Amino acid sequence: MIERYTLPEVGKIWSDQSRFEIWLKIEVYACEAQAALGLIPDKALREITSRAAFDVDRIKAIEAEVNHDVIAFLTSVAEHVGEASRYIHFGLTSSDVLDTALSVQIQEAGRLITKELDALRDETGRSAWRFAKTPTMGRTHGVFAEPMALGQKFAIWYTQLGRDRERLTAALDRCAVGKLSGAVGNFAHVDPSVEAHVCARLGLKPAAVSNQVVQRDRHAELLSSMAICAATIERIALEIRHLQRSEVREVLEGFTARQKGSSAMPHKRNPILCERLCGMARLLRGYALTGLENIALWHERDISHSSVERVTFPDATALLYYMLKKARELLAGLEIDPARMMENVQSAGGVVFSQRVLLALVEAGLSREEAYRIVQKHALKAWTENGSFRNLIGEDPKVKRLIPARTLAGCFDLAPYLAGAGTILARAVPKSATPTTRKKRK
Fold it and tell me: Exactly one of 50, 193, 262, 367 is catalytic; which is it?
């Protein structure tokens, strides 16, 4: 999974090379702070800063013997630094390095993710205004409800992605903490100023209190926020899948000239990207659960969370980044069929205008119950007999007596169903918030 979907820019963040580079920065920055406290001679600090290096293959070879990644890393660094290496990692514990480095990696991945999230949101905002007056059939329970503006669907996605952005930003901020407080977080062998210096150099905040690890509720919140964002993408993809069904066929996922939909049936044009995105959202939900289970560790720490996080964070960040990029490509390449939408709106002889007829009868003096019975009778007959609701209701004697023909005709006007779209979009998607670029649609 990771190898298949990790794009280079995300994969680089979680590579061994990148991880060890961050570890090395943490160790060197800690030495700088300890030298300022007079704990490391200036000469030794110069040797450390000038010679500090590592070899990935050598680290792996050492780890195969000692079965400890941080010790293997420190041994490789010591081979480059020489005698002054005895001051490296002084007073620290492995989790000081591991958890602080993880925070750096999370922030780097978070910047890529939020950039793609903003781009996807912009795409939905543009589409919301582009289709602000395009009528489509609103559905509840999968059944025709009332007409609405297609742009309203995009506006809903735009606002939901905005909430996703807020959640991710808050969660990333809570994960932007470092910890260099020693074996159980008591600063027994390292001065708090060391932690402050290293965190400042890395763009992090010191955790207010820690034991041997940064507390995992922070990470659980982030993974949960990512899973919610993936669920938004799933919602978008699922809607498009429904609208591409053969019986509906109002919106279609892009299909290239040489693309094929089925090995057996040449006519097939399947929403494969939408289905892929829906499947990936399930993975993100699974990672959110593992994040929650990582919160409760034994006493000051155990390492039951460690093996999990070696998979969850590289994979989860890569998945969400990939999903955001593909979702934007999906929306940019959509094929919208307004004529087919109008055909569906007008199908069954106008039954979708039943509420306006109901309200007109109530305004004319009927009780709601009686008006409902009249409208429902003709609407169901139109459905079952494939007739015209407009004709049936127009021939009803009571309706004829109560509602003038011109008033009844107005009940089947689309305009009121689109009239509120401008107000809705102005509240949800300010035009100033979206780029002015316009793309052609089929």
Answer: 262
